[in-house]
Specification:
This protein has 260 residues and is of the alpha+beta class. 34% of the residues lie in helices and 26% in strands. The protein has a 6-stranded antiparallel beta sheet with strand order 4-3-5-12-7-10.
Length: 260
């Protein structure tokens, strides 16, 4: 059985339909996205204008405090995304991509949040927050071409610790035949629609640290109702439940590690 077939076979199945909430949600995404985009309060473009989001300046103002909390956590204490999420297996084969989640789909990861109290407090003030984590791409790490789940979410990056050779550490976002090549900068923000294909490379000998946040796309009326229903389904799917369980195990292992 292929990885994709295994993902689709996992989890509790809805009676009479014999499909998981994750499968049903994926099949409905095109129709959900169409409703969302008709009611979106921001344009459909790969890279978004920061001016649409009033909460960004506050994060940028505190970026040094956020960075201090992120880099105080040793990279060996941050799990690889592929180790905590089986469903990310295809794009997270490179274990040099690591994620320390602070909050996701309504779950507050209290152990991790306690290690970054300033950051944890700041993200609580972000409207429509879906997930928040410290994302580390270690030296030489690669994230292959991929795209996200839905137009209903946008992804935000705040540069915290960026390799000196910035041009060799970047994200490439596809827009038809065009390519947006975007290196990170410390203290600066980047907001994009991750349903556009994108890939990430760190071709340097330094690690890259960012604060990675996913938010609901600002919508009105029915678009907002549909988003909430979709995210409710994702929150209760095997996809999220497995991640939360594995993060809690990782937190427990870290707390009980020798020397702590």
């Amino acid at each position: 059985m292929s990885w994709k077939d295994t993902v689709n076979a996992r989890g509790w199945k809805v009676p009479f339909v014999n499909k998981s909430l994750f499968q049903i949600g994926k099949e409905l995404v095109p129709r959900i996205d169409a409703i969302i985009m008709r009611r979106s309060l921001v344009p459909d473009q790969p890279v978004m204008d920061k001016a649409y989001f009033a909460w960004i300046p506050e994060l940028e103002a505190h970026w040094r405090e956020i960075r201090a909390e992120a880099i105080a956590i040793r990279t060996e204490e941050i799990p690889s995304l592929g180790d905590i999420s089986f469903d990310h297996g295809r794009i997270a084969k490179d274990r040099r991509w690591k994620s320390l989640f602070l909050k996701g789909y309504g779950y507050r990861l209290t152990g991790n949040a306690a290690r970054a109290p300033v950051t944890a407090a700041l993200i609580e003030r972000i409207p429509g927050l879906v997930t928040a984590c410290f994302s580390v791409l270690e030296a030489g790490g690669q994230i292959p071409r991929h795209h996200g789940m839905t137009k209903g979410m946008l992804t935000y990056h705040l540069g915290l610790k960026v390799p000196a050779e910035r041009a060799k550490c970047h994200m490439t976002i596809e827009e038809g035949d065009a390519r947006h090549v975007l290196p990170w900068a410390e203290g600066e923000s980047l907001l994009f629609d991750d349903l556009y294909n994108h890939q990430v490379s760190n071709d340097t000998d330094e690690d890259r640290y960012i604060l990675l946040i996913q938010i609901k796309r600002p919508c009105r009326g029915l678009g907002n109702v549909i988003q909430n229903a979709f995210l409710f389904g994702v929150r209760h799917s095997r996809f999220v439940q497995d991640i939360v369980r594995n993060i809690e195990k990782a937190q427990h292992a870290t707390v009980n590690a020798p020397g702590r």
